[in-house]
Amino acid sequence: MQDFPTAPAQAALFLDFDGTLVEIAERPDAVVVPPDLPSLLERLSAHLGGALAIVSGRPLLELDHFLPVAIAKAGNHGAVLRPLPDGPVEQPALASPPAAWRAKAGAFAEAFPGAFIEDKAHGFVLHFRQAPEAGPEAGMLLTSLVSEAPDDFALMPAHMAWEVTPRSVSKGTAVAYLMSRSPFAGRVPVFIGDDVTDEAGMAVAREAGGLGLRLQDSFGTPGRFRDWLAVLEGQLARGVAA
Ligand SMILES: O=P(O)(O)OC[C@H]1O[C@H](O[C@H]2O[C@H](CO)[C@@H](O)[C@H](O)[C@H]2O)[C@H](O)[C@@H](O)[C@@H]1O
Hints:
Elements: E1 11-15, H1 37-47, E2 52-55, H2 60-66, E3 72-75, E4 80-82, H3 99-110, E5 116-120, E6 123-127, H4 135-146, E7 153-158, E8 161-166, H5 171-179, E9 188-193, H6 199-207, E10 211-214, H7 215-218, H8 222-238
Helix pairs in contact: 1-8, 3-4, 5-6
The site of the ligand O=P(O)(O)OC[C@H]1O[C@H](O[C@H]2O[C@H](CO)[C@@H](O)[C@H](O)[C@H]2O)[C@H](O)[C@@H](O)[C@@H]1O has 24 residues, from strand 6 and strand 8.
Function: Removes the phosphate from trehalose 6-phosphate to produce free trehalose.
Family: Belongs to the trehalose phosphatase family.
Cofactor: Mg(2+)
């Protein structure tokens, strides 16, 4: 078992989705969620008094689609949160990138068969997994566009994708906000993720005395990570992990 900085029963778990809980797929809609994963996460959340949250770049509705269980979720890299499993959705007021940026990115993607844009509420992703030759040029285009409003927007490298996001939110702000309120407050944060976009969440967890774990280093693969979660759930259920 991965060592915790405290008794596991006192931890607050923050889990990335793509590349951590599920394997990366060719397209965002093609990820395969193991049938037993949602209920495993729901049981883990219950053992932790609700202090388990999915913290993802995905929109909240997609997280609800892939993980249709009552657990806390933060989507769009911290731009939308549901801190309590069945509670209300919370969204800070955020600007959207200029329409001209989206139009230029869309025209760029159209020139590379396989590349496409994924729209989000306050940003967009330019995916190039099926057009890898587009990656560097896409990065240069979006770097140039974001430089027009660097205080408001950030460009994040993701797995075979570039994402334009509001600068004021991140997985770090999501973890900090959740840790400020029940049932997360007072627990020791443990963030597990696989990507550059997870580093802000890991950093906040570490600064709070917890753990920021990179999946590849600590677990290897999403499958092995899911196995670890199942073992942890069993221990918490039997009361032998505290
Ligand atoms: O924060 P995450 O839960 O890791 O989500 C990050 C982004 O994941 C998705 O894109 C990535 O996963 C796809 C499915 O495996 C893959 O096809 C793509 O190449 C990856 O970049 C999702 O589409 C984004 O919205 C998330 O921000």
